[in-house]
Amino acid sequence: MTALLGAPAFAQAQAKAPPAPPTVLIVGDSLSAEYGLRRGTGWVPLLEKQLASENKAAKVVNASISGDTTSGGRSRLPALLAQHKPATVVIELGGNDALRGLPLDMTGNNLTAMTQAAKKAGAKVLLVGMQVPPNYGSAYAATFSGLFAKVAKEEKVALVPFFLKGIADGDDAAANFQPDRIHPNEPSQARMLANVWPELKKIIP
């Protein structure tokens, strides 16, 4: 009898359990995977601290893999969406496509497919744009950087025009990078977050 009397109270307590915090899924490459950095110093861990400081109850899942391309991200995304059920998806891919000279049409198609898949899963999307150095040729560089804005406009999603703004385009840019001159160093991670945060905070529930 005691157990039966306690059942309604238990059910009521279960019903009042707080909802799980929304998940922010980061699908990126080495720029988001802390390549060459001490663990916990990359822009994604800094994002977690930013969320905590602003009392935003969101869970960050960093599914970034060094060396990944938009094709790799596209193939991985369905499983990630099913597993984590994110409310927000940050797509930070494309830089390795350019470094490998992959067809720009393929990169654009992959970005579009990933964006559409995330939206179909109920997530809001932030595209993180990249640029390539002038030595790739002005036409290639302009077309590549324009891919992100084109997809964002067509799919009506948020955009960071250039992830490395203030890092790769300054007078003393080399000082902001690791010795390979490809990956930003630890002091530059806060600037990377500063480039992402204004747009990201708008779409986190």
TrEMBL record:
It comes from the Bacteria. InterPro entries: Ester_Hydrolysis_Enzymes, SGNH_hydro, SGNH_hydro_sf. This is Lipolytic enzyme, G-D-S-L family. It comes from Polaromonas naphthalenivorans (strain CJ2). Residues 27-186 form the SGNH hydrolase-type esterase domain. Pfam families: Lipase_GDSL_2. CDD domains: Lysophospholipase_L1_like (cd01822). GO terms for molecular function: phosphatidylcholine lysophospholipase activity.
